[in-house]
Every structure is written in structure tokens, then in C-alpha cells.
Amino acid sequence: MYSKSLHGGNNNPSNSSLNNNGNGSNSGFGTLNSRIKKATPLPITIAKKNAQPLLNAYGLPISAGGATLSRGNKNSNVDLTDKIRVCVRKRPLNKNELRRGESDITELAGKRTLVINEQKTKVDLTRYIERHAFTFDDVFDSNITNEDVYKRTAAPLVDYIFTGGKATCFAYGQTGSGKTYTMLNEKNGLYVLAASDIFSMLNHPEYVNIIPHVSFYEIYQGQLYDLLNARKKLFAREDGKQQVCIAGLTEYECFSVDDLMKIFGHGNNVRSTGATGANADSSRSHAILQICLKDKTKKMAVFGKFSFIDLAGSERGADRGDADRQTRMEGSEINKSLLALKECIRALDQVSKHTPFRQSKLTQVLKDSFIGNSKTCMIATVSPNSGSCEHTLNTLRYADRLVFNLYKHLK
Length: 411
Ligand code: ADP
Ligand code: MG
Known about the structure:
The chain is an alpha+beta fold and 411 residues long. It has helices at 32-36, 95-99, 146-152, 155-161, 179-183, 190-201, 257-273, 325-348, 361-365, 389-408, and strands spanning 6-7, 84-90, 106-109, 113-121, 127-135, 138-140, 166-173, 210-220, 223-226, 232-238, 244-247, 251-253, 286-295, 301-310, 374-382. It is 26% helix and 24% strand. The protein starts with 5 loop residues before the first strand and ends with a helix.
């Protein structure tokens, strides 16, 4: 169909040696306050000057999420080659939010801290703002382009897969916060930008034997569906060497961005049209686009791999006002996989610890990205409007848990 040969899935992960580089390579920790005070002054009275802690309306320190476990101060160099990177991206307010008169409650404080100004009401009905500050490897403001996000997230991972590594980029957040825009945007999602660099690298003579293969599938309610083969149900199996492979997964050889975009467009159409009728709403499924580099001199053994993952919306069914059984089941399945994902990413950083990848289909099929030579970048996407405050805080707390583990030992 795309003038490329089609292969049955023969996932054959290699490189299982443990590698714990990039762990905690940032140094020079500062306090939250030393960063926040440099930001534009906030229009609230509770922010104290200089080194005083930020207090809420009751005089208590703000619930600063990751603030006490920040990854370096704003002067320290962020290491783009870290094994795990956790970034946050906020989108602009959209027309509907503006029409409703909603305000932007998110505010950057320095380059790496996002402050959420939660609007609250005291018992005596006076209104006040509770500030929550979270610090990550990078925070991308609403005007930052996909190209710039790419440079600080996926681009360093492209180099990594050419050293034989497995790289994974996740977009995590509530529905409507910008996951697909970031990861699988047809024009300039991170997958397109990365593919362009990957195909350029493949022009180097030393990679003449490396053949890129593309697959695109979806996980809905713990079941795999091949988006490049009419949403055929697929099954993941673990072979004798404990390597997980997806039997019958369609893979296209692909050497140009144009080809990739055609393949992607086809799969994306299948995704949004809901061929089975069971999954009309793509926000309830995880979409996984993989570019797998295989070595034709080694029986197509996997040389390196890049996975781009557009996760299901992180909100629970109940929060969306959906009460039917199907939606609740979807919600619990999604919660299970997002929880397992968090545990697996955290385990990435601890060489000897067990990786609980069997706890969900998502983590099971990504097993080779959680062990051995692997690096992960999580991009948490947030909606800036006041109506999304609770979801935004939940997203940032989830992302913050990923950072937490990295710095526990440095406390
Ligand atoms: P999700 O996949 O998380 O449900 P989408 O990626 O579909 O959310 O984004 C929702 C809407 O917001 C889309 O119309 C998208 O074009 C727009 N959008 C998301 N992020 C940005 C951004 N950073 N800049 C401009 N528009 C954005
Ligand atoms: Mg989406």
C-alpha cells in the first residue's frame, strides 16, 4: 500500500544490560522561594518577600508539591541526556474559555517552576488564592512551539537510539490539555520532528544496514488494536527469553517523513473513526507510534527504538459526569495503567529494583523501554483555565511523583 514491505511483528529486543546513567546529574539545589521571588510579582498579598516561605490565607506554608524536591536551581544546567526527564507544557486559553471569561491560573516562575493560583473561598466567604508551585526539568509556556519543545525533549533521545537505546516520550494530561497536539499532531507533532532527524541520521554510511520500521497501535481497555491493520486485535506474548512481542503487529519499512506521515494518517483515521464501535472516543485509549531501527545484518534484531505515546485522558470517568458502566470500567483501566506507568518509570532509575511492568497492558508492551538501555521523557500537558484547576493539580502531582524518586536520595 505504501510501496514498502510489510513485516509481521518480530519484536526482538536487544540490549538488556542495565544502565543507570543520567541519574541525578543535576546539582546545586535551591529552594523554591529563591526561584519564585525572581518571577514577576504576583497580585496577591500572601506572597512574602525574600526567603520567607509562601503562605496561604491561613498562614500555613503553601502545599508546594515538588517545591521541596526541586531539581536544581534556575542557574544550574539541566541535563538533556538524563535517563528520565519530566517536563510540563501549558496550552493557551481557548476561545470557549475566553468567552466564558475564565482566567489563566497558571504562571511560570523562572524557567522550571509552574505556579497554580487556585481560587478558594474562606468560611467567611472572603476569596483568596492558594498557590501551588511545582518544579520540573522544563516548563513550556503557552507560546512555545512544538519545534522548541522538541529540542528539549525528544531531540536528545534521537541521538540515544542511535547508540542502541530505547527511548520513550509520553504525553500525559487531562483530555483537551494538548497531548495529541504535542505528540501526534499530523503536521509537527514530536513524532514528525523526531522522524525527520532519524531519517537524516540514517543517511550516514555507518547506518546503511539499519532499516526503520513503523508501527502504530492502540490500547483500549487492556486490549491491543493494530491501527495499521483495520484495528485488528493483537496479543502480546512473552517468549522464553522474557521478551515481550506483539504477535502479528503490522510494521512498515519507512525511509522518509512523507511516507511516515502517510502511514500515520491512515492509522490516525482508523483511530478516530472507531471501527469497532466500542471505542468512538480516542481520549479513552492510549496510542503508541513506534519507530524501530532494525539491523538487517543481524536478522533484523532491534538496534534502537523510539516510542511516542499519546496517553488516554488522565481524568477519571466520574469526573466527566459519566455514570455508565462502560465509562467507569474505562476509567478504572486507565487509572490502573497510569499508576503502573508511574511505578515503571520510577523503577527505571533504580537498577536493582523490580519493574512492575506486568501490572497493565501499556507497561507490559513497553517492557523493553523500562529495562536495559532506556530513557524516558514525560511531558505533562495542562489546561490553564480556572475550570481545569483540579485536573491540572492532579496532573502536576502525578508528574511530581516521578521527579520525587529521582531526588529522594539527594535529600
Ligand atoms: P488532548 O489530546 O490532550 O485531548 P489536544 O491535543 O487535542 O488535547 O488539544 C486540544 C485543543 O487545544 C486542540 O484544538 C489543540 O489544537 C489545542 N492546543 C493544544 N495545545 C496547544 C498549544 N500548545 N498551542 C496551541 N493550541 C493548542
Ligand atoms: Mg488527544
